[in-house]
Design a protein that fits this description.
Number of strands of chain A: 16
Oligomer: heterodimer
Order of helices and strands of chain B: HEEEEEEEHEEEEHHHEHEHEHEHHHEEE
Shape of chain B: globular
Radius of gyration of chain B: 21 Å
Strand content of chain B: 15-25%
Number of strands of chain B: 18
Order of helices and strands of chain A: EEEEEEHEEEHHHEHEHEHEHHHEEEH
Largest sheet of chain B: 8 strands, mixed
Helix content of chain A: 10-25%
CATH class of chain B: Alpha Beta
CATH architecture of chain A: Alpha-Beta Barrel
Number of helices of chain A: 11
CATH superfamily of chain A: Metal-dependent hydrolases
Structural class of chain A: alpha/beta
CATH class of chain A: Alpha Beta
Distance between the termini of chain A: 34 Å
Strand content of chain A: 15-25%
Low-confidence stretches of chain B: 1-34
Radius of gyration of chain A: 22 Å
Chain lengths: 439, 468
């Protein structure tokens, strides 16, 4: 799909980091909860969470409900922060194989790093509601492929039933190393590293003297817009999310990052991360990792195992779960099934899993921390957004679902196009009129 | 890459005819119904199974909750395995004869081996490099002459994961769905082997994979050849069935004609000896396929992927066709847009045959969790289904669809000793297979690293022998 015509350039706006205000922030208190804060602490029984003005003001066992705040009795059910998708393309895609509805990839654009996914987001896309009623309230949205090495600028979004998905546009730049990066750079890993250095050097040249920069010379690989975007990476205004899986690639990327001390990196995927976990921990780079990948689907993930996250965590890595190129559009709720599976590993001899508390944090505060936004989202600690979910059972069980979802303190409609289809076809046999009249 | 695989690899299953090719030789209860004699000149089983059960000892699993695979549940049950077979299943009062190895199942669950009616393991193996892409003979829209078994790579590491993490003991491997008629399927026992034949399920009927909808018309339409539309799909199918009917007529009449491998497969379908496994997402297309089957005198075993079966569940019950479904995949292509989490439960609730399938090297490791999701979605919609009943979606129902239900698919005395001991309720995300027996032989034991198969491909590689 050509989208040159509709491409909106969002160049280097210094205000892009500001949180957009929720439209309908509300006050709500939920009491009598099996309360999960989401920061890795254990659940608290008979807990209360209070949200005012769309933000958590208190959560815990001995929290009073302020006068005038409407209150909901959770009846002892699990109450948790909304899930934070560590890897998604929610809002960018309706039907994956229908190109016209697929806005994550920009393979023939003349731009790359400057491509900002924010204006393409569609909160009314049907996958948004499907994941919303599955308890996912925030998501990191990644660009797909561009024509260059850098894919573009990703965002933090909310899944609320309103017109604006953007929480923070331009939160991070995305780049893939390994096999995909080699393909982007002309065929080899060596070329990927050269491209990376050369592109960032050009961005520096541009930043040093914008007027003199000739972005159209055959010697230059960067458009001005892309150079601006990379300057934001170089000085740490935008984080750099780096997809990398093979152990040797991870180590090479860590070395490469040593040349760019201002860059704020996050590793993504890291299927072989467990084999170099101590090095990742020492570099203090957070990781949004694949959870259940355990097959050598490519030669860069030969050592993949479901114990990947557990072993990295045990080695001291700040690691959380991402649906990396895996159900990243239509079923973001798979992240909690994966988290539950990591708990299951604690009973498998020779495997390393996560405790329940760690696993739940790996799909809430974990991805938020890896993106540097855990001060705003991902837990029920005071000051965070009022994203709260009441569950009908253990939220890591595949048989459980939310009974209520709040985003920015606003209660969300618990419906979707899928539910409408279900209701229409509970009894498929037509009555007096065809099913098309049932709604 | 995953999406491409999912879009292209989706296949229907074909039944294989092997030693039992005369129809019903395997004693299947729901297999070919109109088996007819065939010309004697053709070897119907030229690539015969050489599978032999591995060594086993008489085994008693005691104290576990047992799901028998046919809807039954026994608390504090006893399962006896002997000579590779299920010897007896009962409660705590079932005596354990002397000399049996006792396995304490207290707090654990026992089920039949899990059966996946839709897999591409071996045909699209890991690593999924181009050199391994052996599931679609996408050079002609109808290729009933190809056999999936001739693409199987026994060293696919995916087999071992399906065993250790998924408790899968039998699976149907199908050609992909690029073609209207993709070729014959093969039924495997999930044991490692040097050759495909050593994995081949003895006595399983062949199937023929067919495909509706987007894939065939896209693959061939994009090359400027027929079919490029759904109506083109039907036209090519019907013309091919007409040819097959004529080929069969001549063969049955003893008239000489050049041997045609494609027509041989289709003739066997028309004789009722090969089962039709039809990749078909949309309910309106399924209804057309059922008419086409009627027109040419064959029956459909199973619609695969079947995301819209819930819209015509009553018709599928009447037609006696199974639906093989995902718990919640949807939206990845236009014909999957109306997928809903209640699909499986709604099909079951209508009295039609429901199956949970994977079509995926990852999902095949968690079919129990997919069934749990489907069960829970159904219950929330007000459909009361027991766990024991939902287990049939993974056991006896796929066995029936594959024509192997007289041999496996439930814990019934005399059937193959294909059994999983789970370390907890298999409808919980927290449970995993602890031991897996295939024909009574212990082929996986989570507590015994020696009983964890490692494929040749993974030998000497990073992560070799890991728990994965």
């Amino acid at each position: 799909m050509s989208r040159l015509a509709s491409l909106t350039l969002r160049l280097a706006a210094g205000t892009a980091m500001a949180l957009s205000a929720p439209a309908l922030a509300q006050d709500i208190a939920i009491t009598n909860a099996r309360l999960v804060i989401g920061d890795g602490s254990a659940p608290v029984d008979a807990g209360t969470v209070v949200v005012r003005g769309g933000r958590v003001v208190a959560a815990g066992a001995n929290v009073a409900v302020p006068a005038g705040v409407p209150s909901v009795d959770a009846g002892g059910k699990f109450v948790t922060p909304g899930l934070v998708a560590g890897f998604s393309r929610i809002g960018l895609v309706e039907v994956s194989a229908v190109d016209a509805t697929e806005d994550s990839n920009s393979r023939t654009s003349i731009f790359s790093a400057a491509i900002d996914i924010a204006p393409a987001l569609n909160p009314l896309g049907t996958p948004v509601a499907v994941s919303r009623i599955d308890g996912v309230t925030r998501a990191l949205v990644y660009p797909g492929n561009s024509s260059g090495l850098f894919a573009g600028r990703g965002a933090l979004v909310d899944l609320g039933a309103d017109r604006d998905m953007v929480t923070r546009a331009g939160l991070f730049q995305y780049v893939e190393f390994g096999e995909e990066g080699a393909a982007r750079a002309g065929g080899s890993r060596a070329a990927t590293f050269l491209h990376f250095r050369a592109l960032l050097q050009e961005a520096r040249d541009y930043g040093a003297n914008r007027a003199a920069y000739d972005g159209r010379s055959t010697d230059n690989m960067l458009r001005r817009a892309d150079a601006e975007a990379l300057l934001r990476v170089l000085d740490g205004r935008d984080r750099l999310f780096i997809k990398v899986d093979r152990a040797s690639d991870i180590l090479a990327v860590i070395r490469l990052l040593g040349e760019f001390p201002q860059i704020k990196p996050t590793l993504v995927g890291a299927a072989e991360g467990w084999t170099v976990a101590s090095e990742i921990a020492a570099a203090r780079i957070p990781v949004i990792a694949v959870a259940l990948t355990d097959l050598p689907d490519s030669f860069e993930i030969l050592a993949s195992t479901q114990s990947n996250i557990g072993r990295m965590r045990a080695a001291g890595v700040n690691v959380s779960i991402g649906l990396v190129d895996d159900e990243e559009v239509h079923k973001l709720g798979y992240a909690r099934q994966y988290a539950g599976n990591l708990v299951a590993l604690t009973r498998v001899p020779g495997a390393t899993g996560l405790s329940w508390d760690q696993a739940f944090a790996a799909i809430t505060s974990g991805p938020a921390s890896a993106a540097g936004v855990d001060g705003d989202v991902g837990s029920l600690r005071p000051g965070r957004v009022g994203d709260v979910v009441i569950w009908d059972g253990d939220p890591l069980e595949v048989t459980s679902v939310p009974v209520a979802v709040y985003i920015d303190g606003v209660e969300q409609p618990m419906t979707s196009r899928q539910r409408r289809l279900r209701d229409r076809y509970m009894n498929p046999v037509e009555g007096d009129l065809p099913n098309s009249y049932d709604r | 890459m995953k999406l491409v695989n999912r879009i292209l690899a989706t296949a229907a299953m074909a039944a294989a005819l092997s030693a039992c090719a005369a129809g019903g030789g395997s004693g299947t209860s729901s297999g070919p119904a109109t088996a007819a004699a065939r010309p004697a000149l053709v070897n119907l089983d030229p690539y015969p199974s050489t599978y032999r059960p591995f060594a086993s000892v008489p085994t008693a699993i005691v104290g576990a909750t047992v799901f028998d695979g046919e809807g039954g549940r026994i608390e504090n049950g006893t399962v006896l395995l002997r000579d590779g077979k299920v010897e007896a299943v009962g409660g705590a009062d079932l005596a354990v004869p002397a000399g049996y190895t006792r396995v304490d199942g207290t707090g654990k669950f026992v089920t039949p081996g899990i059966i996946d009616v839709h897999s591409h393991l071996g045909d699209y193996p890991s690593p999924s490099v181009e050199a391994h892409s052996d599931g679609n003979e996408a050079t002609d829209p109808t290729t009933p002459e190809v056999w999936a078994e001739h693409s199987i790579w026994p060293q696919d590491p995916g087999f071992t994961r399906a065993l250790a993490n998924g408790g899968v003991t039998s699976l149907l491997v199908l050609p992909g769905s690029a073609n209207l008629m993709g070729g014959r399927t093969v039924t495997l026992k999930n044991v490692p082997g040097r050759t495909m034949q050593q994995m081949k399920f003895p006595g399983a009927p062949y199937g023929l994979k067919m495909a509706c909808g987007e894939n065939p018309k896209r693959v061939y339409g994009s090359r400027g050849r027929m079919p490029s539309t759904r109506m083109g799909n039907l036209a090519v199918n019907r013309q091919t069935w007409a040819r097959a009917a004529e080929y069969r007529r001549k063969a049955d009449a003893g008239e000489s004609q050049p041997r045609d491998l494609a027509m041989e497969t289709l003739s066997e379908v028309l004789r009722g000896n090969i089962l039709i496994h039809n990749h078909c997402y949309r309910s309106d297309e399924m209804a057309i396929v059922l008419d086409m089957a009627e027109e040419f005198g064959y029956s459909v075993s199973t619609f695969h992927h079947a995301v819209e079966s819930y819209k015509i569940a009553d018709m599928l019950r009447e037609a006696n066709v199974c639906s093989a479904m995902w718990a919640d995949w949807w939206g990845f292509k236009m014909e999957s847009y109306d997928g809903i989490p209640e699909n499986i439960a709604l099909v079951h609730n209508a009295g039609a045959c429901a199956i949970v399938h994977s079509d995926d090297a990852n999902q095949i490791q968690r079919l129990n969790q997919e069934a749990a999701k489907a069960l829970a979605a159904g219950r929330r919609a007000g459909i009361n289904i027991s766990e024991a009943t939902a287990m049939t979606w993974l056991t006896i129902n796929p066995a029936r669809a594959m024509g192997i239900d007289a041999m496996t698919g439930s814990l019934r005395a005399g059937k193959m000793g294909d059994v999983v001991l789970w370390n907890g309720n298999p409808f919980s995300v927290y449970s995993r297979p602890e031991r897996v027996w295939i024909d009574g032989a212990l082929m996986f034991d989570a507590y015994n690293p020696r009983l964890r198969p490692v494929s040749d491909f993974e030998l000497g590689q990073p992560g070799e022998g890991d728990v994965k």
